[in-house]
Amino acid sequence: MRALGLDLGTKTIGIALSDELGWTAQGLETLRRDEEAPEQDIEKITTLVKEYQVDTIVIGLPKNMNGSIGPSGERSQEFAEGLSKVVTCTIKLWDERLTTVAAEKMLISADVSRKKRKKVIDKMAAVMILQGYLDHNGK
User: How confident is the model at residue 60 (pLDDT cuts 50, 70, 90)?
Assistant: First the structure.
């Protein structure tokens, strides 16, 4: 079982990949989004699904602190719906509240410079989303 984790932002998508046994998540890349060609995001994810033989995609679902879904969450749901039309693997939406904050704190505690943090924060958040999903499912 291989899973792909996605942290969807407006400008980038952080991408993480599990090992083949589905135990650990590692950062894969940060995809820069093109607002004028959103279909390219789906194409890139589809390519990664095929390349790594992914059977589950875990997409971060940003919820408000009260559990409700706001505009960002709705965008995640729409992305998942669009992706489900072109891939055959399972797509899960995973509560990602505070993952970016936690990733930022982790990078600060590791003394990563602000400039470098900006480059890896989305990928790190994707790792945390995917690892949370894997841990929850007993992997």
Answer: very high
Measured CA to CA, the distance from residue 55 to residue 40 in angstroms comes to 21
What amino acid occupies position 139? K
5 vs 35, which has greater pLDDT? 5
Within 8 A by CB and 6+ apart from 65, the residues are: 97
Select from 119, 59, 65 the least CA-distant residue to 84: 59
| pLDDT tens-digit series, residues 76-108 | 999 999 999 999 999 999 988 767 666 777 777
CATH T-level assignment (fold) for domain 3-136: Nucleotidyltransferase; domain 5 (3.30.420)
